[in-house]
Amino acid sequence: MPMDPLPELATMNLTQVAQALAEKRLPPVDQWHPTHCGDSEMRIARDGTWFHRGSPIGREAMVRLFSSILRREVDGSYVLVTPGEKLDIQVDDAPFVAVEVKSEGDGCDRRLAFRLNTGDLVVAGADNALRFETGADGPHPTLHVRGGMEALVVRSVYYELAELAIQDSGVAGGPSAPIGLWSDGVYFAMSDA
Fold first, then answer.
1. Which has the closest alpha carbon to 128: 143, 108, 110?
2. What percent of the chain is modeled with pLDDT above 70?
C-alpha cells in the first residue's frame, strides 16, 4: 500500500494543516493488547534515526509505518504493537523529532504547527503542549505528540521559537511574565524568569 507524500508545511496555511490533521487516521494501538511479546531489535536514536539490529532504516516509508504503530506503555517504555504482537523498541530520548515550524498570527492569537521527522503534523495547544527544560547539554524543548509520546524540537526550530518569544515578550501578562509564546490559546513559558 503506497503512503501519501509528506506534507510541505512551508506551503500550507493552518487551515490546511487542520484539515490534514482531521483526515489523518492512525491505527487504534491503545485498543490492542496482544499476548505475544518480544524485542523488535529496533532503536530510535536521539536525532530521530530508526535502527534495526544496529543498521539505520533507510526507507522513509518503513519508518513512517512503524511510527504509526508506536505506543508508550504505562511504565514509560515503548512498543511497536499490532493486533497480533507487541515488540519492545528502545528510544534514546523522544521517539519523534520536530524538524519544522510554521507560525500564523501574533501574540495570543498565534498558532504554531510543527512537522515531525515522520511527516506527522502537530499544532501546539492544550492537547499538544510545548515544554522547555534545560538539560546537561543545554535547552531540551519537547512537544507532546500523542499518547504520552513527545518530539524533541531540533535546535534550528528552537531558535525560531525563541525569536518569536522575544517578539512577544510582555504579551503574556506584562514585563514581569516569563518569556514564552502562545499557540492555539495556550501560553508556553520558555523560562522561569
1. 143
2. 82
Task: Concatenate the DSSP letters of all residues of 32-82 into one string.
Answer: ---S-EEEEEEEE-TTS-EEETTEE---HHHHHHHHHTEEE-TTS-EEEE-
Overall residue count recorded for the chain in this entry: 193
Q: Are strands 70-72 and 55-56 parallel, antiparallel or unpaired?
A: unpaired
| Residue 15 DSSP code | H
pTM of the model: 0.83
Q: What rounded mean pLDDT belongs to the chain? A: 86
- In single-letter form, the type of residue at position 83 comes to P
What is the tens place of the pLDDT at every residue in 126-174? 999 999 998 888 889 999 999 999 999 999 999 999 999 988 775 555 5
Sign (positive or negative) of CA dihedral 10, 68, 48, 51: negative
Cα 109 to chain centroid distance, Å, stands at 22
Instruction: Give dist(CA 24, CA 68) in Å, integer.
Output: 11
